């Protein structure tokens, strides 16, 4: 007879079923559409109350200089936010004083290479994905952000909520004039 602890350990890192992978992939696509269309109220409803949204700054390092700069929360980060902090950032758009958003930025998010794994929690899933986020504003301002994401999504009823996101940019120097985009 197998005990519960053994079952949970074998569950960790196991590839999810096709149905679950499809459902979470569709969730990522919906999230991208909501961000593209600036439906932030609907997007934030997809965020768990205990959310941690992290986008670390990346330094160019030699391979021999092993460092955990991506997971070290004490290092520089573009985002290291909770849900209340994201809501505060977004509320700025409603003030009329967000000069970087008048005129509005145009966004396109492309999400690809989605992989879903089970975790030790039966209602949470690790989701790997790649992203390309394009922004254009005014006449000539263009930015492209490219990277990988590692998420934890929690099933709540018939939908999913984002619990944790680590977005890892492939840029070590941010050339954007501002960072008013979520990936």
Automatic annotation (TrEMBL):
Q: What is its EC number?
A: 1.14.12.19
Q: What is this protein called?
A: 3-phenylpropionate/cinnamic acid dioxygenase subunit beta
One Pfam annotation reads: Ring_hydroxyl_B
Q: Which UniProt keywords apply?
A: Dioxygenase, Oxidoreductase
Q: Which SUPFAM superfamilies match?
A: NTF2-like
The root-end lineage is: Bacteria, Pseudomonadati, Pseudomonadota, Alphaproteobacteria, Sphingomonadales
Say yes or no: keyword Cytoplasm present: no
Origin species, per record, is Novosphingobium olei
Does Nucleus count among this protein's keywords? Answer: no
